[in-house]
């Protein structure tokens, strides 16, 4: 059985054996809510950029009210939850040009990279000058191209969530983990064939830079800046 904080519908079919007619599993936050431990069914997720160092800061999961947490700065921007997954609407811009018009996709704590629709990804890669690298399956850029990177901006609920140049690249200390070479720079994004309601996936690469809030009670997803939004850890 998978212990999950995602939507209950996704647990359908995960129960084996003779427990029928039970087909879905309440999530940890469902149980905390039904047992009265938390008064709103909300999970706040603080991921921090990882470098593999032993003493690096740790992330945090917050069950219940996230207001006032020190894990984010400024305001939380909320946007409606659009699908059974943690689906949201966003647009994406690079270099001041909208490369993905407003579309529905998902935020996923179980996905490492950022997935963009093929057209948007091609426009982005083209602007960066990245070259496909067989060993990692990612696009490699030079030091000069890295220095010239513009913000990659995700616009959600009317608020811009920029990924800085450093936030757009794979952590260089972890290059060997993906078959990369020491000192090289790889863009931490890949293309996906867009389908209805799944035009993009915002994975760790995004979630390490923005605090995220999964609010089942109000059927909404929230994001806020953190101390790591602009950090140069990669
Ligand atoms: C990349 O840029 C070139 C030159 O501006 C253009 O001809 C080409 O269509 C672009 N390719 C993509 C995939 O956007
Ligand atoms: C990140 O840097 C930009 C540009 O300097 C600045 O406008 C923004 O407020 C910073 N964000 C955070 C969360 O520090």
Automatic annotation (TrEMBL):
The keyword Protease applies. The keyword Lipid biosynthesis does not apply. SUPFAM superfamilies: Acid proteases. InterPro entries: Aspartic_peptidase_A1, Aspartic_peptidase_AS, Pepsin-like_dom, PEPTIDASE_A1, Peptidase_aspartic_dom_sf. PROSITE patterns: ASP_PROTEASE (PS00141), PEPTIDASE_A1 (PS51767). Keywords: Aspartyl protease, Hydrolase, Protease. Residues 1-224 form the Peptidase A1 domain. GO terms for molecular function: aspartic-type endopeptidase activity. One of its GO terms (biological process) is proteolysis. It comes from the Eukaryota. Belongs to the peptidase A1 family. This is Family A1 protease. It comes from Lentinula edodes. The lineage of its organism: Eukaryota, Fungi, Dikarya, Basidiomycota, Agaricomycotina.
